[in-house]
Amino acid sequence: xxxxxxxxxxxxxxxxxxxxxxxxxxxxxxxxxxxxxxxxxxxxxxxxxxxxxxxxxxxxxxxxxxxxxxxxxxxxxxxxxxxxxxxxxxxxxxxxxxxxxxxxxxxxxxxxxxxxxxxxxxxxxxxxxxxxxxxxxxxxxxxxxxxxxxxxxxxxxxxxxxxxxxxxxxxxxxxxxxxxxxxxxxxxxxxxxxxxxxxxxxxxxxxxxxxxxxxxxxxxxxxxxxxxxxxxxxxxxxxxxxxxxxxxxxxxxxxxxxxxxxxxxxxxxxxxxxxxxxxxxxxxxxxxxxxxxxxx
Length: 296
Hints:
With about 300 residues, the protein is mainly beta. The protein has a single domain, classed as Porin (Beta Barrel), CATH 2.40.160.40. Helix content is about 5%, strand content about 60%. It has 2 helices and 16 strands. It has helices at about 25-30, 40-45; strands spanning about 1-5, 10-20, 70-80, 85-95, 100-115, 125-140, 145-160, 160-175, 180-190, 205-215, 220-225, 230-240, 245-255, 255-270, 270-280, 290-295. A 14-stranded antiparallel barrel has the order 3-4-5-6-7-8-9-10-11-12-13-14-15-16. A hairpin with a 5-residue loop joins strand 3 (about 70-80) and strand 4. The model is unreliable at about 1-25 (pLDDT under 50).
């Protein structure tokens, strides 16, 4: 990316921000909001819209706000490539059958450099690029089905440039019978300002999925996701819910690229510790995330 600025004495200069396109918040733009905010979300490779409600999957389908636990808090730490990282704080409460959730999320790129057109040993400056979002999710009922509605405000900054956005997301879950359920979601319906570029869409993503409950508390999910940038992506997921250990696995096909993911959750009394990783290109590294949650 090349950025142009004027110094205080009106002398024009050209500076170049050296970043990796796959790791830069600026390269992803508002689509960085699609990064997983919890270990179960990464483990399932972005699928699981129809799985039993789990607040840690509300970033996949807002209808997951309808989880069984009355109140829960969660912190998630996401490690991406190079200096990129993310943080998520989530609070969930379900008073009188009206579940509410607040999600605060940030994604940061560290150690970005400004360099002139003439190569030098040291950069002109170092800076960060980051994206912050605040989301309010609320659950409502519709007949025998459950809906989740989310409103998000976002702020993105790189060097001296900044932009704001707002969007709306909705999810819907229901069941055909005791062992087969369905879920649909539409995310990031909104508006955004461009950050030093001509076009920076919010990043609309929609999806539909089925989930089957198998003997022994095993679940299998199949999703079809459409992203306005990457197109159609089939996603398969599986998880087994145990007393102390829950395991997850997922696979997503994007064009000719296959993403494989997996993880687990350790349950102890009111605490849950989860870990997940995803593999797509070893040259870029392997992103990981851990999540610590407590129920009340």
